[in-house]
Amino acid sequence: MNPDVEQRNKKTVRALLFLVLLMFLFAVALIPLYDILCEITGINGKTRQESSALNYTIDTQRAISFEFITSIGSGTGLEFKADKYQLKVHPGEVISMTYTVRNKTDKRMLAKANPSVTPGPAVSYVKNTKCFCFATQVFEAGETRHLDVQLVVDPVLPARYKRLTFGLTYYDTTI
Fold first, then answer.
1. DSSP 8-state secondary structure symbol assigned to residue 62
2. Domain tally for the chain?
3. Residue-by-residue pLDDT tens, the chain, 175 positions
């Protein structure tokens, strides 16, 4: 083989390997960048934990339907469900929900739940005061746990919102 061609091939391989490395690093960096973007803009309905108790006046003149949905990431060996699918609540009222989570595997598992609210523009009105979703949970093999969430809907929620959905998706984070 011509030394000039061989030299160009080596240079091309190095450039392609560098490009693959760069793409991998970009993909890893997207995760925290996405979380930051969601927090700033409220896109994707990501909620954040409110550090203090919220004392809203309950708007008894309005009732909204609050749905609780659950899902699990691909390959996550958990069974995960809310104890109730739907509640009728008044804005300003504390909403409590218990979730049942069972590790169906024979191995210890670390898992984290990601919360979301739909419709997306309503996320800024839903205050998450207590949630297991803000920390990674450890589930022993076959363990079943009951975990609580506490939410409050700000009474200034626009009247056009009659139904809100609080979703939690569990992902296996065991390495």
1. -
2. 2
3. 687 888 889 899 999 999 998 888 887 777 777 767 666 655 555 555 555 556 788 889 999 999 999 999 888 889 999 999 999 999 999 999 999 999 999 999 999 998 989 998 888 899 888 888 888 999 999 999 999 999 999 999 999 999 999 999 999 988 7
Is residue 75 located within the same domain as residue 157?
A: yes
**What range defines the domain where residue 36 resides?**
1-41
Q: Is the domain of 91 the same as that of 117?
A: yes
Peptide bond into 91 cis (omega under 30): no
Residues 51 and 68 in one domain: yes
* One domain, residues 37 and 79: no
CA dist 102 and 121 (Å) reads: 32
Q: What is the pTM of this model?
A: 0.70
The reply to whether 54 and 20 lie within a common domain is no
Same domain? For 61 and 147 the reply is yes
Instruction: Count, in order, helices (H) and strands (E) of the chain.
Output: 1, 9
75-82 contacts at long range (C-beta below 8 A, 24 or more positions apart): 75/172, 76/111, 76/170, 76/171, 76/172, 77/103, 77/104, 77/105, 77/107, 77/109, 77/172, 78/102, 78/103, 78/104, 78/109, 78/111, 78/139, 78/170, 78/172, 79/104, 80/113, 80/168, 80/170
